[in-house]
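TL;DR need structure tokens for one chain.
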Amino acid sequence: MVNMHRKSNTSNIPLLQIKFFNTIRTLTPLLFLSTLLILSGCNPTPSHSTNKTASPSTTNANQAKTELKQNQELPTPVIQTESGTPIPAIQGSYCWESICADYAGDMELLEGQVPVSVLVGENISIHLGTNVPPDELTLVEYVNGEARPISLREGSFQLAQEKGTHYYGAFARWTSPQNSQVSLGDTSFAFVIRGVEKK
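>> reply
TL;DR here they are.
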């Protein structure tokens, strides 16, 4: 009579291979789903839809914001006095076209920067060089380490009447027309001015 059950030292190897392949088979879909979820979070267009009919002005704003993301690089601020003196801006942290960069704070960015001399009380304008104005544009002045909000009027503000060096930080953000909580992109920058009196 022939014994059909031969004992083998390698009988555990196929079992290990099966467990390994089962583990891979389980992890592969999880890895795929995780990647899909991460990438969908980078999509600037909200995944929910609306049944409302947009008005022509809303449609134009929506189209402009879509074009903002598709056709433009990170906005570069153009800051100048009403007399035309340019004020260089130092790029800060931003998120644009699914790329985010985190920089030091405004005061650290301005270390070693030579301030531009501007007449005290002169109007200064900030333009972001985009065809769509940001939904949020905030400006602060740093005084003794404290950030103080500065009022902007149509992207302009008036330099303080005090002589001396003035440090500023600005933040701009564009949001989705469908949901103001969804950011299409944001940027921050800093600049420094020396207020001087007329000679």
